[in-house]
Structure formats: structure tokens, C-alpha cells
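ligand=cytidine-5'-triphosphate
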Amino acid sequence: MQIYKVGGAVRDRLLGKPVTDIDWVVVGASTEEMLAKGYRPVGADFPVFLHPKSGEEYALARTERKSGRGYGGFTFHASPEVTLEEDLIRRDLTINAMAEDDHGQLTDPYHGQRDLEARLLRHVSPAFTEDPLRVLRVARFAARYAGLGFTVAPETLELMRQLSESGELEALTAERSWKEISRALMEDQPQVFIQVLRDCGALKVLIPEIEALFGVPQPEAHHPEIDSGVHTLSVLEQAALHKQPLTVRWACLLHDLGKGLTPESQWPQHIAHEHKGLKLIKAVNERFKAPRDCQELALLVGEYHTHGHRALELRPSTLLELLQSFDVYRRPQRFEEFINACEMDARGRKGLEQRSYPQADYLRGAATAARTVVVQPLLEQGFKGPELGEALKRERLKALKAYKEAASA
Ligand code: CTP
């Protein structure tokens, strides 16, 4: 049996990037031989094993054929006769279809190295279309390597377009899609992920609510970029530049969905888009079964981002309501994430990327002021139940009034 390093590990080494996990392919071995050597099988009918010591993945060289829709619709053929070249040809991109042996000798039948040099994400063969998830994967790699100058090869984009039009994307499970989306959002240039999905017609299938933002104007005075879709991409770009976590990036992506619902007659104004967008945010959240913290923050940022921008003008009672909506007393981190999402929204505008955002510290100060109110003295005064809640609110309001006065003095 011969064992080769394959996929991302080979690609990233050649790119001079750190290699985290290594995938291996085993040629000339049978399942029985693998088991006899102590490898542990990953799944019942999947020719993949875990190394007894390192825990790394070892897959028997295999060919794959699509037999139906979706991920389940595959038949595998793994046998000792399957060659390395046959295994590599079923893979997604040429840069992912290289193998390396023990001595660092490269097998590169589909010219992955040439495409690495040309900075091209190019499919290996027509078998690319056998897994619709690859549309998202390619967009994710584009987001990751955009900084190195990589683009999607036109003929690959064309295949992605065909896949998007075929209805196959709808067969992807929420879990597989979310895994790609969440990884893509954490890449260096997540806006490129959305842009590539848009370029191949996948965005209007996967998240039509974002596609709908393109071509929708906003008032130039606040939004020199004018277009709502362009703005959304810039907000996401800022979130990545400022190293924001997934929750914030997800909220940035979805914060303005309501603008896609504004009747043309009202453009470029978007009255109450914050509230109108909530049902769309909820639908997207549920479509991909996003984790709870992502879902919650997206809804809160959608509803309250304009409050964030207007923080310095808010009455103390409105500030208090805002803090209560975030349950800032028990969930201070979530409010901090909201503040950061608002700041990214403010910076994700053409020419305003470097602006200062005094609202951020003002909101932090307000949260601190409200949180300094302590319960103990109120308990000692005999308040309990709903009355205690009311008394707490009164004290917090007092604290916020004092805070606002001090801040404007
Ligand atoms: N692969 C594929 N099609 C898929 C998933 C994976 O062809 N839908 C192949 C590619 O050759 C890929 C390898 O399996 O390189 C390993 O996949 P994975 O671990 O998901 O990705 P990596 O390429 O290692 O990239 P990452 O750095 O994102 O983990």
C-alpha cells in the first residue's frame, strides 16, 4: 500500500501557509488490511479511517459516482485497484487535487501547481458538478485566497452557474450549508464569498434576501456608496478587517434585509426597514439553522442598529429600553457585540471607513451606568416581585439621566 498526503495540506504547504489538518489517501489497500493495521473506520459504508495514534483521516483511494440528488446520492467505489490519478480526478479544484508522498514527491496530474501560480480556482473535471456544496466551497476558497490574488476560473464559474440553475443547491442540508457559510464568514475577505455566490447565480437561490439588496438605493448623504447590496458587502469587509467574531459577521450580513422590501416609490428612504427586516432575518436564520447566539444577535442588530447610530441623541428612557432589550445586566457580551456591529455598519460606507464612532464608547458608558445600580438596598427597603423590577428600572433611569447629563456637560 502507498500512502499520500492530499488536499488542503499539500495546497497550503505550497502556498507557504500553515497546515492544520492533514488528509491522507491510501492506494492499493483493502478495508480488511486497514482494520488489521488498527485503523478505526469512520462510518459503516464510507472508506475512511482514523489513524490509531494520530487520529488523522486516511481514505482509501476511491471513485465516486452520483446516483441521485443531494449528499446521500453517491455511490463509492473503493478498491485496491483504484489509482491515485483516479482518486484525484473526482476532487473539486486542481489546487486541491495534488498528492505528496513520504519523500515530498508531488503527484499533480491536473496541474494544480500551475493554477496555484496563476492564482486560479479551477475545477478538475466535469465531476465537479456531482456535489453542489462545491459552489459554496469555491466561493469560500475565493474569500480565503482573494488577498493572494486568486480568482475563480471563468469555466468553473460557468459550472457553478449551471449547478445553481439546476435546483441542486436546494438539496443541500442546512448543516452542510451552514458549515461552509460560517467558515467563509470567518475568512479574511468574507465579502468575496457573497460576491462570488452572486456572480454565479447562487446567492439568489441561497439567500435571495441579500440578492434583493443590490440595485436598491439609499440616501447619498449617509451612504456615499448608494447601493444597499454594496453597503452590506462593505460592512462585512469591515467586520473582517476588525477581526470580529462570527456572531457579529452574521449580524452585519443580515442587518439591512428590510431595505429589500421598501416600495420603489419610497426610495432612497427606508422607513422602518429595521422592523420590516425582522421576518426576513428570522427566515434566513432558520433556513441555515444558525446557532442561537448568531440568530439572536442578527435579530437584535437588525432591530436596533439605528438606535446605535443615534445613541447620543436618545432619551434616557429609550436608552434604558435598549439596554433592557439586550438584557445587558446578564448578557454584557452580547451588547458589546451589538455595539461593534453598529460600528461596522457605520464604517461600511464608501469613504467613511476611517470615521470615528463616538457612539460606541457612549453606549458602553451607558451600560456601565445602568449596571452600577445594585439590588441590595432596594431589597432592604422591602421591594419584591414586580415592584422590585419597577424600582430597579427607576434607579437605572436615574443613573442614565445623570450619565447623559455628565456626557453632554
Ligand atoms: N473535497 C472535494 N469536494 C468536496 C469536499 C472535499 O473534492 N465537496 C476534497 C478536496 O480535494 C479537498 C479534500 O477533499 O482538498 C479535503 O477536504 P476538506 O478537508 O474539506 O478541505 P481542505 O481542502 O483540506 O480545505 P480546508 O483548508 O478548508 O480544510
